């Protein structure tokens, strides 16, 4: 289990990272360069991915721990560096189920033409009938979309329409969660940023299978198509998939620095107490 900060913080974020509903969890533990063809581990479900398009760089941060850096496509409109995960039914859901997709990320990407995709499945610029994705709009806003087949109806949650929106291209760590609830009497597609509810589509029109076919891969950092693939520029520290609509209290969040300090002090005091007990 990834420790998002110092080892004494294990459980501080780990409690929100692992749950019985988790079907895949990517924590990007590593260092140096993740060359093309390198494996990316799913620590829960065995849905391991592969680096494609270009090498990715690992980094280390005192708040979230290790992460992967995506540099988009260099502005040439070609294939950027990405993580590709083989398609599987664990990444599909239908309009009567619940599902949650989350990421911890940071970016300074700007420009309305960039539209950096954080994660996607079954998606490309041709707008297929079955897909899901979340992308950074290049304006500091986030947009999440689901679409089921055979309905061909999109449902969208965009932070630009929220009464209190948060700009996420400030270079700070943020969490995003796209939560679909098809079980409740009123179905909804909700967007959370930093663990806070921002907006919901409560007039769900989609139906059928969401996320393309089993064989359509999951992609971090882009749409799967080559042309207009909406490459993401920034860092991703974790991605989690859950086969239920998680409540706000169960979502991944980035700890506040003050919380990290308190956790560190608590850990030091606990360690000192154990040493004192052993010395008696």
Give the integer mean of the pLDDT values: 79
- Helices, by number, come to 2
The end-to-end span amounts to 34 Å
Quick one: how many beta strands?
A: 19
Largest sheet: 10 strands, antiparallel
Radius of gyration: 19 Å
Q: Give the percentage of residues in beta strands.
A: 35-45%
What do these coordinates show?
By secondary structure, the chain is mainly beta. The protein has helices at residues 14-17, 257-279; strands at residues 22-26, 33-34, 39-40, 49-52, 56-61, 65-71, 82-85, 93-94, 98-106, 116-121, 131-136, 142-150, 153-158, 174-181, 188-193, 196-201, 208-210, 218-220, 233-242. 10% of the residues lie in helices and 37% in strands. Strands 3, 4, 7, 8, 10, 11, 12, 13, 17 and 18 form a 10-stranded antiparallel β-sheet that branches. Strands 1, 2, 5, 6, 9, 14, 15, 16 and 19 form a 9-stranded antiparallel β-sheet that branches. The radius of gyration is 19 Å and the shape is globular. Residues 1-16, 259-269 and 275-279 have low confidence and may be disordered.
Give a short synopsis of this structure.
Helix content is 10%, strand content 37%. It is mainly β and 280 residues long. Strands 3, 4, 7, 8, 10, 11, 12, 13, 17 and 18 form a ten-stranded antiparallel beta sheet that branches. Strands 1, 2, 5, 6, 9, 14, 15, 16 and 19 form a nine-stranded antiparallel beta sheet that branches.
């Amino acid at each position: 289990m990834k420790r998002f900060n110092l080892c004494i913080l294990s459980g501080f974020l780990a409690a929100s990272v692992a749950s019985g509903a988790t079907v895949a969890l990517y924590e990007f533990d590593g260092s140096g360069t993740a060359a093309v063809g390198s494996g990316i581990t799913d620590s829960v479900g065995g849905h391991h991915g592969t680096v494609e398009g270009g090498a990715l760089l690992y980094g280390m941060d005192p708040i979230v721990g290790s992460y992967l850096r995506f540099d988009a496509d260099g502005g040439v409109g070609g294939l950027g560096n990405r993580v590709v995960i083989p398609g599987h039914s664990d990444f599909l859901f239908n309009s009567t189920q619940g599902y949650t997709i989350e990421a911890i990320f940071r970016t300074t990407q700007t420009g309305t033409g960039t539209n950096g995709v954080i994660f996607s499945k079954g998606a490309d610029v041709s707008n297929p009938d079955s897909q899901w994705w979340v992308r950074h709009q290049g304006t500091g806003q986030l947009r999440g979309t689901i679409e089921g087949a055979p309905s061909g109806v999109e449902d969208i949650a965009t932070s630009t329409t929220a009464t209190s929106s948060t700009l996420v291209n400030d270079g700070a760590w943020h969490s995003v969660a796209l939560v679909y609830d098809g079980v409740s009497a009123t179905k909804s597609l909700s967007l959370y940023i930093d663990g806070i509810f921002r907006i919901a589509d409560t007039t769900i029109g989609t139906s059928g299978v969401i996320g393309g076919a089993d064989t359509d891969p999951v992609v971090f950092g882009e749409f799967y198509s080559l042309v207009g693939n909406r490459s993401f520029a920034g860092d991703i520290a974790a991605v989690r998939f859950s086969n239920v609509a998680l409540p706000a209290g169960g979502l991944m969040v980035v700890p506040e620095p003050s919380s990290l300090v308190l956790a560190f002090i608590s850990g030091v005091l606990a360690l000192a107490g154990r040493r004192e007990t052993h010395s008696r």
